[in-house]
Amino acid sequence: MTATTSGDESMEASSDEPADSIPEPGEDSSDEPADSAHDPMAKVRPGEAAGELLAQARMLGALFGEQGTVGAFGRFRVLERLGAGGMGVVYEAYDPDLARGVALKLVNVAAKDRETALDEAKALARLSHPNVVPLYDVGLERDHVFMVMELVRGKRLTEWSEGRTLRELLSVYQQAGAALAAAHDVGLVHRDFKPDNAIVGDDGRVRVVDFGLACEADDPARTTSQRRGAAGTPRFMAPEIKAGSAVTPAADQYSFSVALAEALELAKLALPRHIAAVIQRGRAANPADRFASMRDLLRALARDRARTWRRVAVGTVVASLAAIAIFLRLNQPDECERGADQLNSAWSRTARSIALDRIATLGPYGQSLRSKLEGDLDAHASHWVGEFRAQCLDRRRGTEASPLLHRRKACLELGKAALTTVGELISEAEPANLAELPRAVQSMPNPASCSDPDVLASGTAPPSPELAPVQRQLTEARILVSAGRYEQAFAKASMVVAKARALGYGSALAEALLVQGRALVGMTYRKAALPILAEATKVALSSRADALAVEAWARRVGALARSTESDLDSALASIDIIEPLAQRTAPYARAVLYNHLGNVELIRDRMDKAREYFALAQAESQNLTGLDALELDPGRANSALLSGDRVRADQLLVGAITDLTNGLGEDHPDTLSVRWLRGSATIEDPRKANEFLTRLCPAYEQHAGLVNQRGRCWTELGLVRWDLGDHAGALGAMERATQASSDASEATAYVTLWRRQGDAHMAAQQFAAAIAAVPPKPNEGWLERVSRARLTLGLGRARREMGDLRGASEAFERTIADLEPIVRDHHETNIERRLGSARVELAELSRQ
User: How does DSSP assign 21-87, residue by residue?
Assistant: First the structure.
């Protein structure tokens, strides 16, 4: 579900309405029913190809034309209606001024009621909390008050809660409660909390929405003559609100507790006694009998029986502990040895263990990922603590100038902040985004850089109170974009852009713009990224941040090539300026430049130039480590496939697999992709290819989102087994392919052909239909031609089994004609095997 819509049961009565006008529970008082059946998330979830194409078509149409838009509202291009409730209608829209998707809430009001309609905006403007949907803008347009808010992609808490465990439900409700507590901190009461007014985003973070009924907290001693009108959803409404009594934060406690109790009841979960007691107290009829605050309720909800028992046990030995405390005060550890304590303040080891244990419960991949994450986090912590100690000792000895020591300390603080961000990502992870976590860990700043004078000297400016938060947010944005959290990264980078502009920090502004551009490219809004990356290049050049300028220029050219722009040649003309500049920068910037130029030439089908650039990128990346090296491993794979030297190509892929395994894990999707390339492209011996793919294909089963890759692997394994004469094994692999993928036309036709009492006529029809679905197009890529040739080979095999020898010969001849020119530039064994099979089968037919 996409948020920020209100629910379908909200109501508000004016202060002169009688109390008995409150609808009964379940009655809908809104004039327009909520569009609760609409689910735009079905179109945008990563990994679902059809959804991605539809989302891209819709958004790109809105960005660059009128197709796909509902209409315009002011500067906004309205894409589609998301839902409605008693307080307004919410649309998904595109804001061209800020180049981002937003949720646009419109309230149609008379002029005299505008101030009332702006109450929600005023409430949101006072709140800044990760679990409250942020307000970007508010204004008046004709007869509408409009609010521009974050576009949250996810599900309403009502829908998300189905089939969840007790731990999962308590976790998301804790987040929702934190949002209410934040509102209470600024003197607001939500008044309409319910599961439909909380969204669990695809990023795992809960946002409480619809503050349309929020009000200032009353003084509990307010007299009944100062009666406030009843407002809220009857089923979740606190008794004092129905009675018109004082509205205090305790009312939100009541709504929260009722909602949590309902969720747990629907889930048919056995409640621990202390959880039931917390809920019972939170929904007490008398506000005075509830918790003193929402935070107290949340603390009680998080308290488990084991912790309570430990507290009692500690109490029995308090005297002994007092004696120990005296001893410890007399024997305080040296401050330079307290790095571990410093790091624990960012994310404690206890919290880390709990989060990692939860990861292990999220399916087979989560189980294997836990140990990988733990090892990487331990290694990072050890390096950080060592750098902390070294910095502390150098400060004490006075061996370094004060400015450099300040930079070292600021660098370590950024590393600590990065750990907090990574901890949040791990703690909130769901099965769908587990693969983000290894990159998030790898993207934390290398502690060793905090003692590298060259790195420290290249900082944006000497540490200052006003720059420190900008640097922290920029570090968070870099981690988010590296982890694939593109929408969050864009939002965070946008904040940095605004602050860096105001403060005049050019280098920080250039890097924030670069992160913005990378995030938009990651969301496939490539054209929207172009002006941002162009500005990043210009700002970096003017700030003499040469490495940033080179990287931003390279990423813009890469995005331009994929957005089918006609001015690519003119953009590439400035390579004469950028390439000499790149020679003065670090190897990473040059490697990124050559890797993107190689991809551009690959897209343009200029293989010699692509081969040249990928070789340069490979040479520059030799000594890179960490995330820098991992990002460039696909370039190493491209270099391998274009090298023309099968032995050298296999060595490069083995090296890339080793690095990806060490950095991301053996079963990470990126590692599996390069393992697939080796199994399908460089292993010549079909027996070894069979062994390799037999180990690889089941590894895809751990990832629900890799259905097409899984099907492709099983299909290739089936063809290799058929070539080896293992017909039963070939059929089994093809059957696995049809079960694994939603697009398995090749495998389906082979199953029809190869199964016992196979139907060659039906198989021929299936192959022919699959070929017709991918007709030749002008300037199509070689991969499309290979896919069609594979199907044509299958068609020839089916026709031969039918006895149509002439038709089979024609199919084999067409396969050979299509594949022969391709193998001259692309020396992949799977293509060569299909070409060889077609030649052998055609030769056998000629002898009949």
Answer: GSPPTT----SS---TT--GGGGT-TT-HHHHHHHHHHHHHHHHSSTT--EEETTEEEEEEEEEETT
Give the span between the Cα atoms of 711 and 717, in whole angstroms.
10
462 to 404, 406, 408, 475: CA distances (angstroms): 9, 8, 11, 16
Query: Which residue(s) pair with 231 in the sheet?
Result: 12
Closest CA to 532 of 564, 496, 483, 586: 496
Q: What is the pLDDT of residues 481-526, one digit of tens each?
A: 998 899 999 999 999 999 888 888 888 999 999 999 999 999 888 8
Lowest mean pLDDT among 52-56, 525-529, 806-810: 52-56
Residue for token pair 């390799």: 692
Pick from 516, 496, 355, 340: nearest CA to 424: 355
Give the burial class of 559: count Cβ atoms within 10 A of its Cβ; 0-12 exposed, 13-18 middle, 19 or more buried: buried
Q: If you search the block for the tokens 């420290």, which residue do you land on?
A: 456
DSSP letters, 511-533, are HHHHHHHHHHHHTT-HHHHHHHH
Across the beta sheet with 100-108, the strand order is 71-73, 76-85, 88-95, 100-108, 144-150, 135-141
The one-letter amino acid at 270 = A
pTM assigned to the model: 0.59
Non-local CB neighbours of 565 within 8 Å, separated by 6+ positions = 527, 530, 571
Rounded Cα–Cα distance for residues 202 and 45 (Å) = 8
Both tokens of residue 224?
Answer: 């009944």
Answer yes or no: is pLDDT of 225 > 60. no
114 CB-contact burial (10 Å; exposed 0-12 / middle 13-18 / buried 19+): middle
Contact 378, 441 (CB under 8 A): no
Instruction: Tell me the pairing of strands 231-232 and 2-3.
Output: unpaired
Q: Could you tell me which residues come within 8 angstroms of residue 151 by beta carbon, excluding any fewer than 6 positions away?
A: 2, 3, 4, 92, 100, 101, 102, 103, 487
Residue 300's alpha-carbon distances to 189, 254, 291, 294, 344, in angstroms, are 21, 15, 9, 10, 23
Domains of the chain: 2-153 (3.30.200.20), 156-307 (1.10.510.10), 335-452 (no CATH), 679-846 (1.25.40)
Q: Specify whether the CB–CB gap between 652 and 667 falls below 8 A.
A: no
Beta partners for 207? 199
Q: How confident is the model at residue 756 (pLDDT cuts 50, 70, 90)?
A: confident
Side-chain-facing half-sphere of 279: CA atoms under 13 Å: 18
